[in-house]
Amino acid sequence: MITVEEALKKVLSHFDVLETEEKPLLESLGQILAEDINSTVDVPPFDNSAMDGFAVQAACTEGATRSSPKFLRVVGQVAAGYVAEEKVAPGTAIRIMTGAPIPAGADAVIRFEDTDEEDRRQSGQPLTEIGIRCQAEAGLNMRQAGGDISNGSLVLRKSALIRPQEIGVLASLGWNVVRVFRRPVVAILATGDELVDVAEPLSPGKIYSSNTYSLAAQVIRYGGIPKLLGIARDSVHALEEKLKEARDADLLITSGGVSVGDYDVVKDVLVKHGEVTLWTVRMKPGKPLAFGVLSVGEKTVPHLGLPGNPVSSMVTFEQFARPAILKMLGRESYDKPTVRARSESHVRNTDGRRTYARVAVSTRDGEYVARLVGPQGSGVLTSMALANGLMIVPEDVPSVGVGDDVSVQMLDWNEEAQPDKDATELEKTPIVCVVGKSGAGKTYVMERLVAELKRRDYRVATIKHDVHGFDVDKPGKDSWRHAQAGSDAVVISSPWKLALIKQVDHDFSPSEISHLIGPGFDIVLVEGFKRSELPKIEVHRKELASELLCGVEELLAVATDEPLELETPQYLPADAKGLADLIEEVYMKPRGTKAVSAY
Ligand code: AMP
Ligand code: MG
């Protein structure tokens, strides 16, 4: 059985971002920009008034107060959308509305409230003159031309998601056609002799094909265009006929027919017409899954064969089809919005698979809580309808108890939503492992690298991983006595530092440990964990081994006492400066620039 991650990695390797297309502005909503947008205009295009008031020369207001106003002659008025014909000369003012261009000669706007206009009106005095009751600096209540966007500047970057606010920004630039990455067409085919379309009457032994509709709706939700191929009967011929209609799709999704029953012909047809891998994935619901590339006439179409049970097909869609669609759309992140929540239910997970349990997530006392909803059978679609999240119970966790901390994928959260600022911040904190054979000098490299990064003012956290275990509690100390008495987690704290000693039921991954460490760090350096998939710096010593422990694709750098024939950057183990430069280059700088790249 392969893991969800392994299966996803294989699936995603068959997809790439699609070609670009031009779209009328409004229709580009939800797509990804395929070009940088540089402005060819200033926004706003001209200096204009930020208030309703009087355009004046600031110098003429010097010394003006409520009790001793300066009087100016009113020579005209201008509304938004028009240009004043008159000029503002010393001693004069023009009545102006918000958004109207600043008249020639003026350099400030005095709002009505700071003039005697209202008093004049009430006492019937003529409005040919105005009393100014405050002194203005040049530029007061004015919006400068180009103050939001200046001509020639980079406004939106290629690969930005087009949300309503981007639509607005593009409209403010006069962009009415946008170049975006095309949406994928996803063909959907249900298989099964028992299936009937919702528009048909039911007869004995038949059920409605709900998958056709739930899957098509998921395609739409994640930005694809569904192409409904209807229902194929459980015969090789019927299926072959239907598959022809998938010719022009970017992805074909079938439901059903991939398990081991007598009529599960999908796999036979796929094997006959394509390169298909059938997997049993370590997940529940959704064990059987097929993926491959199907030849349809001259063309090839990636095919994802989902299980037929209605909940299984939806859950496997979320884990595999959704990321593929997002990748084709040009999205950079496929992570499902996920929160940490406290479980309010007991969930059993006995057969070593990753369970996705249907839960309702709500907030209580400032934290998320997750409660199981309805029966969890893979055919019970109503419990899916009651759920707003999928609680993830890892493969090696046999049960979740009430009060346990769990991860929950949020089904309805906007993909752009920042689930939990701390959690996303943590996910973005880069983690680098320093690995090497025992005695290669990992701690030496760690020590120097930490000191060098601290010298550069970064907040650094470190993790020491030891597969043989460790012991920090001194027998007889209070914390030791707590642990001896059976406490599952002991924290020793003082006003300056704290230590956590917790009994764990599995080897915590660096990112899980990172969550324990908390937010606010620029980098986490791990000593050890050579089997993780994180980027690594391998410490190599000639006298210990002739070959490296890690594959080059996992390596960020090698700290080595002999030159190696590799493309990977190499440093002497003592060269902390070089290693820190590299870490800075790879992790710190792009983050710095990203912050300003939003526009
Ligand atoms: P299968 O994977 O084909 O063995 O189907 C497993 C279960 O899912 C069976 O009970 C099917 O009747 C049911 N099923 C298969 N396809 C659909 C569908 N399109 N809509 C609703 N239920 C389905
Ligand atoms: Mg079937």
Explain this structure.
The chain is of the alpha/beta class. It has 6 domains: 4-13 and 183-329, MoaB/Mog-like domain (Molybdenum Cofactor Biosythetic Enzyme, Chain A, 3-Layer(aba) Sandwich); 20-41 and 150-181, Molybdopterin biosynthesis moea protein, domain 2, CATH 3.90.105.10; 48-143, Molybdopterin biosynthesis moeA protein, domain 3; 338-428, Beta-clip, CATH 2.40.340.10; 429-467 and 508-599, P-loop containing nucleotide triphosphate hydrolases (Rossmann fold); 476-506, no CATH class. The protein contains 13 helices and 35 strands. The strands form 10 sheets. It has a 6-stranded mixed beta sheet, with helices on both faces. The radius of gyration is 33 Å and the shape is globular. Bound molecules: adenosine monophosphate (AMP) and magnesium ion.
Structure summarized in a few sentences:
This protein is α/β, with parallel strands linked by helices. The protein has 13 helices and 35 strands.
* CATH level 1 class label of the largest domain: Alpha Beta
Spatial ordering of strands, largest sheet: 15-12-16-20-19-17
SS elements, strand count? 35
Bound molecules: adenosine monophosphate, magnesium ion
Helical region count? 13
Helical percentage: 10-25%
Give the overall pLDDT as a whole number: 91
Largest sheet: 6 strands, mixed
Architecture (CATH level 2) name of the largest domain: 3-Layer(aba) Sandwich
Distance between the termini: 45 Å
Low-confidence stretches: 418-425, 590-599
Structural class given helices, strands, pairing? Answer: alpha/beta
Principal-axis shape equals globular
Approximate strand percentage: 25-35%
Number of domains: 6
Output the CATH homologous superfamily of the largest domain.
MoaB/Mog-like domain
CATH topology of the largest domain: Molybdenum Cofactor Biosythetic Enzyme, Chain A
The radius of gyration over CA amounts to 33 Å
